[in-house]
Specification:
Layout (H helix, E strand, L loop, with lengths): L2 H7 L2 E7 L6 H11 L8 H7 L5 H13 L4 H17 L2 E7 L2 H7 L4 H9 L2 H11 L2 E5 L4 H13 L7
Helix pairs in contact: 5-7, 5-8
The structure holds zinc ion.
Length: about 160
């Protein structure tokens, strides 16, 4: 087995990922167009280059720009679904995904029901993805993460063995 095949097949855990930062550049283009938000690039290649952080202010600029592009329940569902699919593609068996409601609500006026409603709606999708991939993903929300992490750890402990 080549090192590349091994790395692809190895089970992985994502211990700290921000859902907003995990958005695919192509999806960001789609959402920006759908919601009338100007981006610093109009194609995936240039957007991928822009995603490479130069420093903290640049990181914050990217984060705020992405957040500005998320307006509807469907937008939140799309990024949650795509991130789940990416976890399965990379054989990630466990993920702790964080999300910052305050930015979405206080800065851009997105309602609590819009984002949490949709981040919960993919439950059926999540169960299907877990059944097919053996992966477990949990959303870790500020102040509510510990219990959910413990549940996820219990579930992660029950996952099948890695492919050989
Ligand atoms: Zn972080």
């Amino acid at each position: 087995m080549s090192i590349e095949s091994y790395l692809r097949a190895a089970p992985k855990a994502e211990l700290h990922v921000h859902l907003e930062g995990a958005i695919r550049p192509a999806t960001l283009l789609t959402l920006a167009e759908r919601n009338g938000v100007a981006l610093p690039a109009d194609n995936v290649e240039d957007l991928r280059r822009w995603f490479t952080y130069r420093d903290f202010p640049h990181f914050a600029e990217i984060y705020v720009t992405i957040t500005r592009c998320l307006k509807t329940a469907d937008d939140y569902e799309l990024i949650a679904y795509e991130y789940g699919a990416e976890l399965a593609r990379q054989n990630a068996r466990y993920a702790e995904v964080t999300f910052t409601p305050a930015t979405h609500a206080l800065r851009f006026g997105v309602t609590h029901n819009t984002y949490f409603g949709q981040l919960r709606r993919p439950a059926a999708v999540q169960h299907d993805a877990e059944r097919r991939s053996g992966a477990a993903a949990q959303a870790v929300q500020p102040g509510r993460g510990l219990h959910r992490r413990h549940s996820a750890q219990r579930r992660a402990a029950q996952l099948p063995a890695a492919p050989s």
